Amino acid sequence: MAHDVIEMAHGAGGRMGGELMREVIFPAIGNDILAEMHDGAHVNVSGNIAMTTDSYVVKPIFFRGGSIGRLAVCGTVNDLAMTGAMARYLTLALILEEGFPIDELRRVLADVRKAADEADVKIVTGDTKVVGRGAGDGIYINTAGVGDIVDGADIAPKNIRAGMDIIVSGYLGDHAATIMAARHGISLPESIKTDAAPLKSLVASMLATSKNIAVMRDPTRGGVAAVLNELAGQAGVGMLIDEDKLPVREEVRGVCDLLGFDPLNLANEGKLIAIVKREDTEKILAAMRNHPLGEHATVIGTTTKEGAGEVGLRTPLGSIRMVEMPMGGLVPRIC
Amino acid sequence: METNETHKVSDRALAGKLVEEIDRLTRPLGRKVRYMEVCGTHTVSIFRAGLRQLLPPQIELVSGPGCPVCVTPDSYMDKAIAYAKELDTIIATFGDMLKVPGSESSLSEAMAAGADIRVVYSPLDSLKIAKENPNKTVIFLAVGFETTAPTAAAAVIAAKRAGLKNLFMLSAQKLIPPAMKLLLDDERTNVDGFLLPGHVAVVTGSDAFLFLARDYHKPGVVAGFEAVEILRAIYRLAQMTTAGEARVENEYDKVVSREGNGAAQRAMYDVYEAVDTPWRGLGDIPASGLRMRDEWQSFDIERVRPIEVNVKPNKAKSLCRCGEVLKGQIVPQECPLFAKACVPEHAIGPCMVSVEGVCAAHYKYGGGKFKYGA
How many angstroms separate the CA atoms of B140 and B132, rounded? Predict the structure, then answer.
C-alpha cells in the first residue's frame, strides 16, 4: 500500500478507493459473497428473518480486550440474538477521518474478522467514506444485520408476566469500566477487559433448552437499570432485584466508587438479561452455565404485580429503593 | 464468598438492632426528631441504602447545604460561561457543573456551541491540561468544600513550582462550619442534631464542629458513608437527644482525627484566605468562602483577567425554593417546580442538577419512602 494514512481520495470511489479495498479491506474480511463486488449482496434467506442496524462511535477506538471493530460485529449480532434471531449476514460501513492511520484500520478490520468468525457471520457488503480532518474522530462504523428467527421463539415484552425470574448472564459493567478507566488513566488489573462477545450461540443453546423465555435484552448503554425500567414500563409489571445477587467484580465496583457511577447503569457488550418462566429457570440457567459466555449466569430478581412500571432494589440491609431510569449523557460514546 | 455473605448477614442484623435502639430511645419523646445530614454524599448514601424506610417514623432526616454545585450562585456560573466563550480558553471542571443553570444558559450549552470544556476528576488533572496546551489559558472551576480545596491548592502550588503561566482558578470554594452557623442562627431551622460530614472532617478535624455543642447546644456526630456507619451515628445522636445532651462525637475515627489533616490545612491556607461569599439560596455568609491570597493572585483568573457579567433575573427561577430546601426548611416535594417544570434533564434549580443535590436524590429515589407493593 502506497499510503500510510487515509486520504480524501480513498473515499472518492476512484483508483485509490479500489486500492484500499483490494489491499486492506478484502484481505481482512473478504469472502465469496463480498468478492462478487456487486452494488448489493445477493444472499439466500427464507422464512422469518429479523433485521437490525447500529452505529459505533466508541472512544478510545482500541481498549483492553477489543476495539470498535469487535463492538461493531458483536453489537449487531447481539441485537438480533435478543429478538431470537441468529445473525447470518452483516453489512459494514466505514466512515474514516482523513489522516487515520492505515495500520490502525487493519487492526480494526482484523477484529471485525475475528468477531465475525466467532459469531459465524459473513460481511457481505459495505461502504467506505472519508471525511475531512477534524470532521470525524478517526473511525466510525455502522453495521446492519439479518438473521433467521429461531422456530418457536416468541421474544417480546408483552410476554412478561408477574412471577417470572430475571436472569443475567454474567458479571456486569466490565465494558464500561474498561472504557472509563482507559479514558481517565485509571489502571485496572489485567482481569478487567471489555466483555464484548457475540451472544448468538449462547442464545441458541438457551432457546434449544426452553421456549419459556419471555424476553431477552442486552444491557448496553444505560445498563441493567435502563433495560429493566424499559421492560417494566412496556410490560406493565414491577421488577424487584436483589443488590446482594448482582454479579459485579470488586475491581469494577472500585472504578464505580472512584468515578461516582452505579454498576447498574454501566454498559455491557457481551451480557444478556432474560426474563423467564419460573418452571424453566433451572433448566435455562444450566444451559447458560454450560456455555463459556454464561458460566456466571444467575437469577437477580423477579417480576412482580406490585409497583407496576417500576424497578425496586432490595438493599443489603433489607430496605427497598427505586432504581431509576438513567439519565444518559454521563458516559458518552461508550459504544 | 462465604465470608462476604456472612458479612452481609451481620450488617443486616446490626442495622436491625440499631434501628430498634433508635426507636426505643426516641419513641418516648412523643415528637418528631429531626437530624440534618450536612453532606451531599450522606444524602445519596441514605437514599441508596433505603435508610428512611428502615428508620422509625418519628425520625426525620433532612438534607443540608453540603452539595457544592447546589450552593454555587448564578453569578459564578455566568462568569464561568463567559470565560468559556473566550477564544484560546480551556475550562477544566467537575462533570456535574456542566448542566448547572446560570442566569441564561449553562456550560453544557456553551460546550455545544464550541467552547473547549473538559471534564476532570481532580484539580490536578487541570495541571496536565495546562502543560499539554501551553498556548491556551486553562481555567479550573474550583468549587467544593474543605474536601477539594486542599487539592486545588496543591494544583496551584505545583503549577508555580513547574513555572506554568497558563493555569488559573475560578474559585468559589466554601467552608462548611460558617454555613451551619447561619442555619442555626435562623429561627426557622428546626433540627435536633447534625450528621457531620466525614470527608470534610478528614481535613478540618472533628474539633472544627465543637461550636455546635458549645454555642448552640446541638449534638453532632461525624459519620462515615456506609449505611451501618450512618445508622450508628444516628443512634449516638438519639442517645444525646434523649438525654438532653449536646456533644460533638466522632463515629468515623478510623479516618477522622480531632485536629484533622495538618498538611492539607496548611496547603489550603497557604493559598487561600477566608472571605465573605454568596451561597445560592443562603445569601452572603461571613468568612465562608476561600479567596486566593495576594501572593497567589497571578493564578486567580478574576484578578488576572476580570470579567463583568450581568446576572439576569429569571421568572421560572423565582419560583425555585432551593434556598429553603438547602436549609432543611422544606422538602423538595413542597416546591411548586419539583418533578414538574424542574427535572434532572431540564433542571431549573441546582439542587436538581448535581447527583448529590437534595432534589435530584428525592426525584431519583422516589422520595425514599418507596415501599414495594404498599
Answer: 15
- Domain locations in chain A? 8-149, 157-322
Closest CA–CA distance from residue B121 to any residue of chain A (Å): 8
Please give the residue of chain B at the shortest CA–CA distance from A237: B373
Q: CA-to-CA distance for B56 and B30, rounded, in angstroms?
A: 12
Which residues in chain B have their CB less than 8 angstroms from residue A305's CB? 373
What is the residue-level pLDDT of chain A in tens, covering all 335 positions? 678 999 999 988 888 889 999 999 999 999 999 888 888 999 988 899 999 999 999 989 999 999 999 999 999 999 999 999 999 999 999 999 999 999 999 999 999 999 999 999 999 999 999 999 999 999 999 999 999 999 999 999 999 999 999 999 999 999 999 988 887 777 778 888 999 999 999 999 999 999 999 999 999 989 999 999 999 999 999 999 999 999 999 989 888 877 778 899 999 999 999 999 999 999 999 999 999 999 999 999 999 998 899 999 999 898 888 898 887 555 556 56
Residue B16 CA to residue A315 CA, distance in Å, equals 13
The C-alpha cell of A192 is what?
A: 478487567
Q: Look at residue B374 in the predicted model and tell me its pLDDT.
A: 34
Residues of A in contact with B228 (CB under 8 A): 317
Count Cβ atoms below 10 Å from residue A58 Cβ, excluding itself: 27
Q: Are B373 and A259 inside 8 Å of each other by CB?
A: no
**Nearest to A205, CA basis, from A157, A175, A169, A231:** A169
| Full set of structural domains in chain B with CATH | 74-175+260-304 (3.40.50.11740)
Are the beta carbons of B38 and B67 closer than 8 angstroms? no
* Residue A234 vs residues A219, A273, A310: alpha-carbon distances, Å: 16, 15, 11
Q: Which residues of A are less than 8 Å from B53 in CB distance?
A: 319-321
Helix axes B123-132, B149-161, angle to 10 degrees: 30
Q: Does B56 touch chain A (CB under 8 A)?
A: no
Distance in Å, alpha carbon of A259 to nearest chain B alpha carbon: 8
Mean pLDDT per block of 10 residues along chain B (374 residues) reads 55 93 97 94 89 92 87 91 94 87 88 90 91 96 93 95 96 95 90 95 96 97 95 98 97 95 95 94 92 96 93 78 86 90 83 83 70 44
Q: Per residue in A208-221, pLDDT tens?
A: 999 999 999 999 98
Q: Which fold has domain A8-149?
A: 60s Ribosomal Protein L30; Chain: A; (3.30.1330)
Helices (H), A147-298: 174-184, 200-209, 223-235, 250-259, 281-289
- Among B117, B370, B371, most A C-beta atoms within 10 A, so best to mutate, is B370
CA-based diameter of chain A, in Å?
67
**Which superfamily, per CATH, for A157-322?**
PurM-like C-terminal domain (3.90.650.10)
